[in-house]
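User: Can you predict the 3D structure for this chain?
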Amino acid sequence: MKLNVVIHRAEEGGYWAEIPALPGCFSQAETMDEMLFNIKEAAEACLEVDA
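Assistant: Here is the predicted structure, written as structure tokens:
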């Protein structure tokens, strides 16, 4: 399954991301690599809860 991820720069530094197709699915991190890992984990958790 492919989901669109919207990544934003946080005002205080780092990044935060959301998945519009999964309301309430957000994550944050200091680096882009961490963000990609974190948002993937967040998506998996959101999908697991919905299942």
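The first strand starts at residue 6 and ends at 9. The chain has one domain: 6-50.
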